[in-house]
Specification:
This protein has 283 residues and is α/β, with parallel strands linked by helices. 46% of the residues lie in helices and 14% in strands.
Length: 283
Amino acid sequence: MEREPYPRDLADEQWALIEPVITAWKQERVARSATGDPGGCDLRDVVNAIFYQNRTVCQWRYPHDLPAWSAVFYYFTLWREDGLDQQIQELLRCQVREKARRLEDPSLVVIDTQSVRAAAGVPKTTTGLDSNKRIPGRKRGLAVDVLGLIIDVVVLAAAAHNNAAGRALLDQAAERCGNRLEKALVNQGFKDEVVIHGAMLDITLDVVRRNPADQGKGFVPQPKRWVVEQVNGTLMLHRRLAREYDHRPDNAASRVYWASTANMARRLTTPAPAWRDDFVAAA
């Protein structure tokens, strides 16, 4: 008897976007395996289980009608170690940019960090206290393009300075985008150290400062930089990311890549309103 699908299960057209990558990975693993056993787990349902957990923040053992939690955890870890989560996310990102009539790699990225509270049980060795925002947990750094597509993710202890996240994100973005990347926008929390590091990578950093006239008005969107704030808000729809539940920072980063994959798969297969097409073309 087939199970009833969950709202965020992959539709056939969405699975068709990522299935070739997973199939190629599986064939490579089988070729390197000593036994040559491909395994009997349905990898589409494994991806559905990861999406389900991201959206509902349930524990590994809770879904009873999805693959065994041990199998889901095994593939989640294996895909993170092999970089498959990033490969899939990168493939869909390039397709979304192509659909928006843009080159695969951006010339400009927007960088920002967000401090997220850690849940009980997360090791103190991987967390810290953001003394500025008074949040105990981890600091999640994002580099995104002007379409709101994630280029890179870094997860550090919340006590880490924005400069540490900025340097790591610039290194990863430069490696991923190559010579195409020319400019990055950051807020005032990033200091000269990041600007110098960007210059060493031939990336110009612009520190976007708040307009003094906006003081006391709360959150005021800043031109182009607002997109990274929107991405952080969209990620919060995946409730697993509203807190840090994963013991390992690299697992937490992988969660962000899978959330991005889910968002882009829907974006590629769901018709956008006409007004949005006009907005993207003008951006």
